[in-house]
Amino acid sequence: MRQQWEEIFKERLSTILDGLLGMSLGLSAYSLTSFGIKDTQDIVKSLIYFTILFLLTIIFWQGISRSLALARYDMRISFINLILAALLVIMPFCLRLILLPQPETKKIGYYLFPIVISILSFFGTLVNILVLRQNIIIPKDELIRMRAMV
Questions:
Q1: What DSSP character marks residue 101?
Q2: What pTM was computed for the model?
Q3: Domain span at residue 124?
Q4: Cβ contact 113:56 at 8 Å
């Protein structure tokens, strides 16, 4: 039963991770559109917010996607990638707290955002170390397909 669940999980992992990335970008776009604009300074703030969020999401997503090919053969890397993608969904909320006008919520956002980025960086580094240090056996036909894609 466990092996069957692992096989199903391995097959669906890229779909799950793509869905979490889409949710992260969708939440950031929603936060951007719900931000009240009163003057040009608010436009600059909202553009900086979305640019930071978009760049950070792309940077972390690149690490996830690179290890995704190898993650299908190691469940630890798969779970760490899943945690990474789930934290990407939390990141828009942290940045949104910084943009709110209340000083108490801004303070929470200023504390929460570096913590989330630190955890994301830790898990991203952990995935890269596991991928580099582990001799994961990849079937020959999979290697040929990966080379053809490159």
A1: S
A2: 0.65
A3: 2-149
A4: no
Q: Is the CB of residue 98 less than 8 Å from the CB of residue 44?
A: no
CA dihedral sign, ordered 138, 139, 145, 148: positive
What is the Cα–Cα distance from 26 to 16, expressed in whole angstroms?
15
| Dihedral angle of Cα 115, 58, 42, 103, to the nearest 10 degrees | -10
Go through 56-90 and write b for each residue having 16 or more CB atoms within 10 A of its CB, e for each that does not: bbeebbebbeebbbbbbebeebbebbbebbebbbe
- Between CA 85 and CA 2 the distance in angstroms is 23
Q: How many domains does the chain have?
A: 1
| Other Cβ atoms within 10 Å of 41 Cβ, number | 9
Query: Would you state the structure tokens that stand for residue 57, as one six-digit string?
Result: 């999401």
CATH of the domain at 94: 1.20.120
Tell me what percent of the residues of the chain surpass a pLDDT of 90: 0
Nearest to 70 by CA among 144, 148, 142, 150: 142
